[in-house]
Amino acid sequence: MKALVAQALTGTAGLAYTEVPDPEPNSAVIVDVGAAGVCFPDLLLLRGEYQLRLEPPFTPGMEVAGTVRSAPEGSGFTPGQRVSAFTMLGGYAEQVAVAPDNVIPTPDGLDDGEAASLLGNYYTMQFALGRRGALQPGETVLVLGSAGGIGVASIQLAKAMGARVVAMVHRAGAEEFVSSLGADVVLPLTDGWRDAVLDATGGQGVDIVVDPIGGDAFDDAIRVLATEGRLLVIGFAAGGGIPTVKVNRLLLRNVSVVGVGWGEFVRRHPAAQAQVGAELNKLVAGGLRPPPPVRYPLADGVAALDALANGEVRGKLVLEP
């Protein structure tokens, strides 16, 4: 089968589209991949900058959707069944072997690209907003990096939970796309953005900040929190080091900085995957749909990942064999 293989930790330059052996079934579910989700941690893996450092060669790809080719007896899955899966590795390929506990039936009404879009970003943000942030109806959520995959999921899920959403954009021309997701207010992430957020909230600030970018925006993100506000630390896509905070600011203003590590949480608490999945499936049954993903052929994976790294992708990026 064909796969995208990291042959050196030199970013996308180290990727090769090449022939590799088919996966061995053993006790795994073998999935014919219809779409593989692309996420920012994949880029970090390819640079050797992720918390999990792998030595090449390896095949990236943490999330897939497709069709069961074979499944072990008692797994609950059957050949031909449409499924989605958290693979952690191996998803950028025509087939992948997945532990049965990491496979979930694909909700009706979604194609493979849409189903892959619901995995990492939407599971992360359902966990982030629902459990870590304890979002309540009527609260206000500020989303940084709102045109990216995490940002899109944040806007849609926050609205589905009854929140008001203020979305920040730093990409030219992204305002219309972000507005189409249901954001109540869309503002540019430029100098003075903190004052613009305070103006948009009548000076009260926001109850939750979703921060997948870190960097220079972090300090002002804390300053726009209302009393008992929560800043959800999702990641550090902006680069430039990991932000720090003087904890006296948290004490004096009665605000919280909350870490969101979905992958680590579900590793320690495997039952959480089914719980979060059930919550998401209810929203999907009620009409929630991710926006159409940006689709690239698997063979053009290098170009796709470069587009993601350069900030050219709005929403979710998927690779299709």
Automatic annotation (TrEMBL):
Enoyl reductase (ER) domain span: 11-319
EC numbers: 2.3.1.41
Organism domain of life: Bacteria
Gene Ontology MF term list: 3-oxoacyl-[acyl-carrier-protein] synthase activity; oxidoreductase activity; zinc ion binding
Keyword Acyltransferase carried by entry: yes
Keyword entries, A-Z: Acyltransferase, Transferase
Pfam hit, one: ADH_N
Name of the featured protein: Phthiocerol synthesis polyketide synthase type I PpsC
Organism of derivation: Mycolicibacterium mageritense (Mycobacterium mageritense)
